[in-house]
Design a protein that fits this description.
Chain B: This is Monosaccharide ABC transporter ATP-binding protein, CUT2 family (TC 3.A.1.2.-). Chain B: One of its GO terms (molecular function) is ATP binding. Chain B: Keywords: ATP-binding, Cell membrane, Membrane, Nucleotide-binding, Repeat, Sugar transport, Translocase, Transport. Chain A: GO terms for molecular function: transmembrane transporter activity. Chain A: InterPro entries: ABC_transp_permease. The complex is a heterodimer of chains A (about 425) and B (about 525). With about 425 residues, chain A is mostly helical. Chain A has two domains: about 280 residues, ABC transporter involved in vitamin B12 uptake, BtuC (Orthogonal Bundle); about 70 residues. Helix content of chain A is about 75%, strand content about 0%. In chain A, helix 4 crosses helix 14, helix 5 packs antiparallel against helix 14 and helix 15 crosses helix 16. The radius of gyration of chain A is 23 Å and the shape is globular. By secondary structure, chain B is an alpha/beta fold. Chain B has three domains: about 170 residues, Rossmann fold, CATH 3.40.50; about 70 residues; about 250 residues, P-loop containing nucleotide triphosphate hydrolases (Rossmann fold). In chain B, a hairpin with a 2-residue loop joins strand 23 and strand 24. The radius of gyration of chain B is 24 Å and the shape is globular. The N and C termini of chain B lie far apart (about 55 Å). The chains are: A mainly alpha (about 425), B alpha/beta (about 525).
Chain lengths: ~425, ~525
């Protein structure tokens, strides 16, 4: 009883070293693995099922290389918004203004480039800064004045839509120069130097495969080291195989059209970066903690106001990135751009398992949620289903996905 | 020989994952008696009551329930309420913005064809309020009355449902002595006049020995024994022996080699005003000091302003227009935020571990390291391995009973939750640790362990301030005691001077002076 508090803080550095492997490796049983798959990858499985369904229904059109490239490019801005939206939802807030922010950024870019003939680089920087300022504006009201985020961003939705119309004077500005459209329209081999390398897309696929296997192996080893139950060797190697197969096959598949879309590289970078921030950094922890119990987080000495502020500033930045990508993709700045994007981004987060009360959700989940909606949209369009039915079906998917999630959680408890 | 009203036979309840919460529990409750149910936290008391009241429907448990001699198969709470079995949970189920009257008749409105008859409602409510001794207007919103009165509203609500068997889960946990006394008398009165039977779950053994006719002791999901007022020994020590399965000779661990050092923290002329009500003084000119290696207790009745005092010191987490001086290790320090307080080596463990302490939807690891992530990170990136090691070492050192550091804190028992809170703040490595009601709602065994932790912290030269409403506890563990009443410190007693009587005298003297003025 008496030696449980020896010393001041625990000498973590010493005790951190791996213990000699005296204990046997804890392995998960087959049922456990199955339930983990169901819980953790449910939406992923749903995505695959939906994809297979449309693949069959569209006679293989859905997954042809050209359509896949198109699907990624068409949904990229929603996914970028979803990546920014997730932290907002984690802190228990919401941002309804992102659609309007996308429009206002497009308007600024259009005015600067098309009307005023300013350089593209300067325009992009200005737009990103504008995004940060918009985020800071909304974050100020939410975090420091404590106006509910729903109201602040509802006001922002109207405010920035109005601003867009003022800036554009009701007109649509077009066209943008080639260099501005680059990120949204082009492919890997269009980059001057990289394009000269043969098989550049496949090389990236190979790098991905190696990194993926290494990360998985590392994770496995660490779990063993710390006595966390792991899945068996066979399952591990199945995972390796899957990673290698998926990364090589998907890059190979893309080479059958025009190679890797540049937007996919940007998207992958953002997904990786924000997953890292959410799960490995102090600020990420603070975001989850704030959503889980605000008062407790405050009483742990965390400046919750600033955390919330930063989350909104980040959302502004992501909305600006999405605005740039969207205007580049459409090659115009229109007053009605981005209408109801906020709802798609929010739906993506919820379909991907985020909790409406905050504290629960992952970046990958939000991206998968966004893809589920993207594939549905695309598949139904190919089948010629009208926009009316598309809306209804998407609504049902959102409802059922969240209901499934809640059912699963209740079952666990 | 009184009739047996309720009989539960061989009740077995298992939760997902094979956790056996109840294992062959048997209990008999006689008509018109008050039956107490005691046991350590996690022993299965609340689970048993949830089985009885239909929260866990028939079929999810094994065993038989007989009520009034007939077998019952409750599917919902409604079924059990129809038979006159009403449960009042620890967390009160009142709607804060509705009036007392509306709360009493919630779900049971005086209505005809869906239209509420407010006149009749009011009349009935007044009658019920009279019975339970509640003298407010029936239109008062429930959030405007104190917890003690809210508890009475719950009982009135039960009476409106024509209750035969009332189940109370820790009814006095949030009440002060006076309110508790009142509640217990009400129970005795209802038994006499209404012929009501009651099952009461409580940790406050002195109350149980006062009002209960029979006591059933549960340990690890099994019934250990039932004590009868007339035939068995009915002392607190006897009950504790049954609960823990051994005799606890000393409820408070002995302090050994305590070296009390220099003054570590001193508070001078501390004033705090209420953030809600203008010009209301909550803490009035308080002076306090605590030395290294010293355990200082702050005694007082609930509502004396102790929590508010502690939270205002802890980076102004409570209150408005705070004035006064904080001197840490001889130097005046300016503390305006919680992180300032932590940087200056002050930590505060809240009394409300579920509401303001733990992140219930996160695991033990996250909860342990929350305020100290800086220590575990490099350039903003958390070192996951280090963190796991830290969490595991505290799990072991504080004897936290859990499946592992990845268990969610919402699934832990009260005692273990409190230990996670302690782990969090011990790892933050403060010089002064303020513990607010550290053992509220915790079983005897865990209490003892927490006292040991407090002693150990003092031995390591930390200053510990303990706020507690349980006088024996403050007396048992403190080197020095401040008595607080209505925002003022009304006495400072050394360990030798302090006794239940002397503390109460300080409070009474102060109240008397006020009446004279």
């Amino acid at each position: 009883m008496n030696n449980f508090l020896k010393g001041k803080a625990i000498p973590v550095d010493e005790s951190c070293k791996a213990e000699p492997a005296g204990e046997p490796i804890k392995q998960l049983s087959r049922e456990n693995i199955f339930s983990i798959i169901i819980n953790k990858y449910a939406m992923f499985v749903a995505l695959i099922v939906i994809a297979i369904f449309f693949q069959w229904q569209t006679d293989g059109v859905l997954l042809v290389p050209m359509n896949i490239s198109k699907l990624i490019m068409q949904n990229s801005y929603i996914l970028i918004l979803a990546i920014g939206m997730l932290p907002c939802i984690l802190t228990g807030d919401i941002d309804l203004s992102v659609g309007s922010v996308v429009a206002v950024i497009g308007a600024i870019a259009g005015t600067m480039i098309v009307s005023m003939d300013m350089p593209v680089g300067l325009t992009i920087i200005t737009c990103l800064v504008a995004g940060l300022l918009i985020g800071a504006w909304q974050g100020f009201w939410v975090a420091f004045v404590k106006v509910p985020a729903f109201i602040v961003t509802l006001a922002g939705m109207l405010l920035f839509r109005g601003m867009t119309m003022v800036i554009l004077n009701g007109n649509t500005l077009a066209p943008f120069p080639e260099s501005y459209q680059f990120v949204a329209q082009r492919f890997l081999q269009d980059i001057p130097l990289v394009g000269a390398i043969p098989y550049s897309t496949m090389i990236i696929g190979l790098i991905l495969a190696v990194c993926g296997v290494y990360a998985e192996w590392n994770d496995h080893q660490q779990k063993i080291q710390y006595g966390i139950p792991v899945s068996g060797k066979s399952w591990l190697f199945t995972k390796f195989g899957l990673i290698v197969f998926v990364s090589l096959f998907s890059t190979y598949w893309l080479t059958q059209f025009k190679g890797l879309p540049i937007i996919l590289i940007l998207l992958a970078g953002l997904i990786f970066m924000y997953s890292f921030i959410c799960h490995k950094t102090v600020i990420g922890r603070h975001i989850y903690a704030l959503g889980g119990n605000e008062r407790a987080t405050q009483l742990s000495g965390i400046k919750t106001k600033w955390v919330r502020f930063i989350v909104f500033v980040n959302m502004g930045l992501m909305a600006a990135v999405a605005g740039l990508v969207f205007s580049a993709r459409l090659n115009c700045a229109a007053p009605s751009a981005g209408t109801s994007f906020e709802l798609d981004a929010i739906a993506a987060c919820y379909i991907g398992g985020a909790s409406a009360t905050g504290g629960v959700g992952t970046i990958i989940g939000a991206v998968v949620g966004g893809l589920v909606m993207g594939v549905l949209n695309n598949g139904m369009s190919i089948l010629g289903i009208g926009i009316d039915w598309q809306q209804g079906i998407k609504g049902m998917v959102l409802l059922l996905a969240v209901a499934f999630d809640i059912y699963n959680q209740n079952k666990k408890a | 020989m009184p009739n047996i009203l309720l009989e539960m036979q061989d009740i077995v309840k298992e939760f997902a994952g094979g956790v056996r919460a109840l294992d062959q529990v048997n209990i008999q409750v006689k008509e018109k008696s008050i039956h107490a149910l005691v046991g350590e936290n996690g022993a299965g008391k609340s689970t048993l009551m949830n089985v009885l009241s239909g929260v866990y429907p028939y079929g999810t448990y094994k065993g038989m329930i007989r009520y009034h001699g007939e077998e019952c198969k409750f599917k919902t709470i409604r079924n059990s309420e129809d038979k006159g079995i009403v449960i009042i949970h620890q967390e009160l189920a009142l709607i804060p913005y509705l009036s007392i009257m509306e709360n009493i008749f919630l779900g049971n409105e005086c209505q005809s064809k869906g239209v509420v008859n407010w006149g009749k409602c009011r009349f009935e409510a007044m009658k019920l309020m009279e019975t339970v001794g509640l003298h407010d207007l029936p239109d008062t919103p429930v959030n405007k009355i104190g917890v003690g009165k809210q508890q009475l509203v719950e009982i009135a609500k039960a009476l409106s449902k024509d209750v035969k068997l009332l189940i109370l889960d820790e009814p006095t946990a949030a009440l002060n002595d006076e309110e508790s006394e009142k509640l217990l008398e009400l129970l005795l009165m209802l038994r006499e006049k209404w012929g009501m039977t009651a099952i009461m779950i409580s940790h406050k053994l002195n109350e149980i020995t006062k009002v209960a006719d029979e006591i059933t002791i549960i340990r690890d999901g099994k019934t250990i024994e039932t004590l009868n007022k007339n035939t068995d020994e009915f002392s607190e020590d006897r009950i504790i022996k049954g609960m823990v399965g051994r005799e606890i000779t000393n409820r408070y661990p002995q302090r050994t080699d305590c070296k009390i050092g220099d003054v570590c923290l001193e508070i001078k002329n501390w004033n705090v005003y209420s953030p809600d009500i203008a010009n209301k003084v909550i803490v009035n000119n308080v002076n306090l000091n605590v030395r290294r290696g010293e355990v200082v207790g702050i005694a007082g009745l609930m509502g004396a302003g102790r929590t508010e005092l502690a939270m205002s010191i802890f980076g102004r987490a409570y209150g408005a227009h705070i004035s006064g001086e904080i001197i840490k290790d001889g130097k005046t320090v300016k503390i305006t935020t919680v992180s300032d307080a932590i940087k200056n080596g002050i930590a505060y463990v809240t009394e409300d571990r579920k509401g303001q302490g733990l992140i219930l939807i996160d695991d033990i690891r996250v909860n342990t390291t929350l305020p100290s992530l800086k220590k575990l990170s490099l350039r903003g990136v958390v070192n996951a391995q280090k963190e796991i090691k830290v969490a595991e070492s505290y799990l072991e050192r504080l004897h936290i009973k859990a499946q592992g550091i990845h268990q969610f804190t919402k699934n832990l028992s009260g005692g273990n939750q409190q230990k996670v809170m302690l782990a969090r703040w011990i790892y933050a490595d403060p010089d002064v640790l303020i513990l607010d009601e550290p053992t509220r709602g915790i079983d005897v065994g865990a209490k003892y362990e927490i006292y040991c932790v407090i002693n150990e912290l003092a031995r390591l030269g930390k200053s510990v301030i303990v706020i507690s409403s349980e006088l024996p506890e403050v007396l048992g563990i403190s080197d020095r005691i401040y008595v607080m009443n209505e925002g003022c410190f009304v006495g400072e007693l050394s360990q030798a001077e302090a006794s239940q009587e002397s503390v109460m005298q300080c409070i009474m003297r102060c109240n008397k002076n006020k009446q004279v003025v």
